[in-house]
Specification:
The protein has about 200 residues and is an alpha/beta fold. It has one domain: Vaccinia Virus protein VP39 (Rossmann fold, 3-Layer(aba) Sandwich), CATH 3.40.50. About 40% of the residues lie in helices and about 25% in strands. A seven-stranded mixed β-sheet has the order 3-2-1-4-5-7-6. The relative contact order is 0.15.
Length: about 200
């Protein structure tokens, strides 16, 4: 069941879809995060048959991934239908699903590489979303998650319950069935990539 807060969040992204790729956020953060996560992925995954971007927005990360892995099947999911419509327009060679991370319409063990950048704090049920990604990943597959991360005391004091410390993210990954390979800052100290292997 979607909460009113979640519905407003999705509605905001629906309205943002037409200008999203030209926003200041792309230049200041997302372009750099995308480059960093793809460089890291290229060092651990050689030829993925398919790539899933959870919270794909307008599909920009998938288009960049295609330049590194042109043979890979591209799959994106996002709960904002406006973002999905724009992604389909801009990335016609990919398959997109208008859905949340918590309910991926994919078969078990069907994905080689899953990515998610700066959307985790928007997920309604983060633990369920991580279990879904673990479900769709093939044995040995990788999931690279980039999101804001702050020390546990900051999360508690500032009531930032949608964000996690390094240790908190590691625990969530482990509980979902991932073996955490590495955690490292990308771009800024509080932007963290967590790499899990199924």
């Amino acid at each position: 069941m979607t909460t009113p807060h979640r519905e407003k969040d999705i509605e905001r992204f629906d309205h943002w879809a037409s200008t999203y790729e030209h926003s200041w956020l792309q230049r200041a953060l997302l372009d750099r995060v995308h480059q960093a996560i793809l460089a890291l992925a290229a060092g651990i995954v050689h030829q993925p048959g398919n790539i899933l971007d959870v919270g794909c927005g307008t599909g920009k990360l998938l288009r960049l991934a295609a330049s590194s892995w042109p043979q890979a099947q591209l799959i994106g999911s996002d709960p904002a239908s406006g973002m999905i419509e724009m992604a389909q327009r801009l990335t016609p060679n990919a398959t997109f699903f208008p859905c949340a991370a918590e309910a991926l319409p994919l078969q078990d063990a069907s994905v080689d590489l899953a990515l998610s950048t700066m959307s985790f704090h928007h997920w309604q049920d983060q633990a369920t979303g991580l279990r879904e990604i673990a479900r769709v990943l093939r044995p040995g597959g990788y999931f690279l998650l980039v999101d804001g991360s702050f020390p546990g005391w900051v999360v508690r004091v500032a009531h930032m319950r949608r964000f996690h410390s390094r240790a908190g993210l590691r625990t969530l990954f482990t509980q979902a069935g991932f073996h955490v390979q590495t955690q490292q800052a990308v771009i800024w100290r509080n932007v963290l990539v967590t790499v899990g292997q199924k």
